[in-house]
Task: structure prediction
Amino acid sequence: MSFLQFPHRRLPARCTSAGGSVLLVMLLVVLMQIVGVPLASAHMATQAQNSASHTANTFPFNVGSTDVQRLRNVIHNSQLAPTVKVLATSPAFIDQFPLVPSGIKALFPNATGLVTVVRGNRDDSTSDTVTLDVQNMPPNITFTIFLIELANKPFGNVEYVADLTTRGDGSGETIFRLISFLAFAMDARNPGTSVDGEGLTSGINLEHLGMWFSSLQDAQKVLNNDTLTGTIFDGGNPPLHAGPQAMTDGQTAPVL
Amino acid sequence: MFRHISSHPARPSSLPGRPAIALLVIVLLALLLSACDSPFAGTQNPSQTTHVATATSSKLIFPTTPPPLRVPTFDTTGQIAPTVKVLSSVDPTLIVQFPLFPASIKSLFPKASGLVTVFQNPVANDFDVVTVDVQNMPPNVKFTVFFVELSAKPFGHAEYVGDVITRGDGSGESVFHLITFVAFAADNRHPTTSSDQTGDASGIQLEHVGMWFDGVDPARQVLKNPAIPGTPFDGGRGALHAGPQAMTDGQTLPVI
Result:
């Protein structure tokens, strides 16, 4: 039976109001649907966040993290520089420390750098991931990055790890993957030993990080100083073609 | 009222009902459309469509043939190991490959093999990409990877690059991002020079690659020789705790 043939003749009169009600309800439904999608998304996001926080609160980070605890003890015992921040994760850990201007300080006093090292599970990871972010540096210049024995002159033993080329606004970043926390220099004919956070180790630990002008000419131009002399801080031909140190962690105690 | 209306059954019931039903149908259609529309709207990328339309209208033509390959110049001094293969690659990339051979593990793992692939974009390069692939190695063992001055004893200066952990079938691989072709060791207090593929350069060139057991205990176990002495070829965890060299490029002339 069709609704149109419904025998109650009073009903159609009501149908107008009932139809209006239905229309209103439908419009409300449509409106709610339109408004409800983002609301639902927001609700779901909130739920997800709550769930994440719940997970984060219950996940056993920090509790059994021997590496993080070890590092914190190392910092507490002044074996790591006070500028080093060890973030709480496990079984990996994240180590952050700033770089400050050295050779560029007079002309680029606001230059800043942040080094972030992610080290995976000691038993499973095969390298560390190092991210280096800089701001307010000389623009459009290539800098070399070295792991070094000493943060300041004479720098001692060094290891060339990567380059960073700044943009026109003086910012830049690079990411590289290699051994950083346990980096050391040695001549296997006479390896020697040194002490790090874990005690006696082979070779000479490279526990600092610095950036150098890859080109002496760039440095002379940027720093308006023709008397600057070449340094060893870049690879390849010719020798001593690099410029002075631009950024340093500036610490006496290790940062790596 | 009811009766009065019921005396005119057809008209009063149909006239007010039809608009209501029409409205209901429209609302339902609107509801359906809005329900169907959202996911489509969510998955469609307007910019993509515009881009396609633009591309079609501007009739962009894309290449249909592969880019030409060339064998780039790697060594200008003629002093590179015969095992090194410079691959044909698209300009400006440089891809170099060379094998690794078993050293101390040769008697027990004669089929052990390794392949090192180094990728470089010499134009825009923050680091080189090094892939180490091994097969038929001692299973479930961690090896360290070093750049070294000499491929065989006494190895000379060394740089700890990363690790490779083999699987149960003796295979494994690792990827590192770091300066490779111009890697060198130096003590800035006593800088020296040496020759690499481009001529004289600062420091002592590290032009060979080797792999070592990361622990002397696993080495003794795998090689069934409790008399194996410790070596410095791993960082941290006490001096001379690493095992003997497992794989080497075995060359006198440089491979990187």
Remarks:
- The CA atoms of residues 107 and 223 of chain A lie 7 Å apart.
- Chain A has two domains: 19-58, 65-248.
- Residues 65-248 of chain A form a domain with the Immunoglobulin-like fold (CATH 2.60.40).
- Chain A touches chain B through 79 residues (CB under 8 Å).
